[in-house]
Structure prediction request, 763 residues.
Amino acid sequence: MNDLFIVPWTEQLSTTLWIVVMGFLVAMTCGWVGTFLIVRRSAMVGDAISHSLLPGIAIAFLWTQSRDSLPMFIGAALAGVLTVVLIEALQKSSRIKADASIGIIFSALFALGVVLISLYSDSIDLDAECVLYGEIAFIPLEPWLEMWGREWGPVPVWRMAILAVAVLILMRLFYKELLVTSFDSALAGTLGISPAVYHYGLTILLSLVIVSAFESVGAILVVAMVVFPGATGMLWSDRLDRILLQVPLWSALTAAGGFHLAYAWNVSIAGAMAVVAGAMFLLSWAFSPGRGWFWKRIRRIHQATCIF
Amino acid sequence: MNADESQLIFWQQALRFLSFEDGVVRIAVLGALLLGCACGLVGSFMVVRKLSLFGDTLSHAVLPGVALGFMWNMSKDPWTIFIGAVIAGLAGVAVVQAITRTTHLKEDSAMAMVLAGFYGLGICLLTWLQHSGTGEVAGLDKMLFGQIVALSSEDVWLMAIILVIAGAILFVFYKQYLVLSFDPGFAFCSGIPARLFNGVLMLLLAFTIVAGLQAVGVVLISALLITPAATAYLWTNRFHHMIFLSCGFGMLAGFAGTFVSFLKGGLPTGPFIVLAATLVFVSSWLAAPLHGWVPRHVRNWKRRRRVAIENVLKHIYQLIEQRGPVLNQQIRLRELNQRRNEPLPDSLRVVRQLVRQGLAEWVQVVPAGLHETGGLAFVLTESGHRRAQEQVRNHRLWELYLNQAASYPMDHVHEDAEEMEHLLSAATIERLQRRLAHPTLDPHGKAIPQNEREA
Prediction:
């Protein structure tokens, strides 16, 4: 017991801390943006974007011949917007339906990305499998932020933290607009709020969040971070603001639980985080007060016995 | 390696591939064709039912099953892996359905959750296998992007069996699946067991996906399910035609992708197959005769031009009518221009079009400059005159029909007739005339021109 729960937080504190903090930040930021995707019924667009960012990043790396963050972010944001634009253009310009156009566009872009990476493997310092899996365990080994003669922690963690704060501020500032455009775009139109602006704004934000989460959790498991915190929250509350407030809680549980599961079984940390997020959802599904499966069953038994 | 040398290798590889003498190449091509065909077949049903992304979800959800199938006897036995993967895939489908039925979360969220949750579990199991160092897991990560040259003849047999099973089931129960796909309400009324048939379809989907993992990988198998079927959807309105086309496009993509990835050794196959499928899709999106972008716009443009021509003919006929029924009347461009109330060059352009189509003739030669063009005169040719008459007849006949048969007020019939006059077919006109007892006057009291032949 001690070995599993005490040692990581004492002897290996600095590794553990940064991994868990990174996992928490990724899950929270993705979860916030993801909640809006869920209520807009476009969770699979999150999956699509997480795949189709690959060619954007690959082209950014090829172009600048470096691994700087700025070109990577620009490439990712452009690729994200391009994905959404193409999906919508395909729907509008032909008889292809939404689901098929999502499938066609993201897989084509992803395939393009993989081909680019394997063709220019000597000049792109990027491994397709690394993008797909990510390795959060390497976060503490990344270059550290140095300021005022001190080291403050790995750069990716700080980048994620800044993004989390930015998402929080944007969400707070534009909460009303996001709410209206998500639930009633006709009303938004009459209020003079352009649904398109918030749609594309959300897309860009999602692309930025996903690209910064890439190196830690990978393209596919980032979908878990996008969808699970919000979906779990939706099992506990019907109010968007309360769901958003719950997201940090579920994210912290995901990150810490995932880390310990991975530590105990010696498995992939990101995978374990996705599993814990899933387990959290299942537990809420069963036991969330009032609407969980368990309580519904109890109530039904109660009602049945009342009749007699 | 210099350019000549690399080009030589390129041609050697191409020759080696196209001669099919190499056993590896034969198996790879056969696998790609079988897989393309199976994916096209099952994918057609998914695309028309708007379930395309189920393939994506399922292909990720099979991963824990792959790992468990491997753990069963710690070997890469394709059969246990196959069974494990199919069970995991079906469990994923069941969870998606349970979530959408019992919570207020929608299908897209449920699919994303199953996709990511199951995949995470699979990654955990695979890394656990790797770290525990038992057996040889190395091949399993090939399932991410696929390496078609790594196919064994056993894998190809598996694909062939699956294709035969899927083909047989979908052929025998084609009618039921057709009804289920396009009219679930009618299917319910006819007593078709929808849940059983849907379950079987999901099973076939899982079979196909698992069979394709080796060749194109987890991530891109869903593309092979969607893209060829969507391509076929652009070519036809008949479902059975769509299925055959979809199988054809799938096989084409499989062959082309395998060929290209073979030219430069060591490249993953899956992405090239997907890119080939996408290329076929994009060209169909542009040029497919029925639903392609270019043919549709050409059709629209032609229709607009026909309507414009017909309107001009109508205006000319009205001018002729004002002066009295004399054949071969000369019309001045200025008159037409005043009647149409448009800039003079526009009138000139439209009459030039009439002349080009043989519907009108200039009375004298057209000068190059635009001055004095208003004084130019033209006559309708015989065919032009006939079409003009038909047009005016259509318009007035429809007005009369609206007024008499549909009791439209007099002042409301014109606008509707402006639209309808371009759409009435010869057969409809025939019936209208019979219905209205071959009328001679329209509701405004103007003569309805009769076809010379009839008169």
Observations:
- Chain B touches chain A through 62 residues (CB under 8 Å).
- The radius of gyration of chain B is 33 Å.
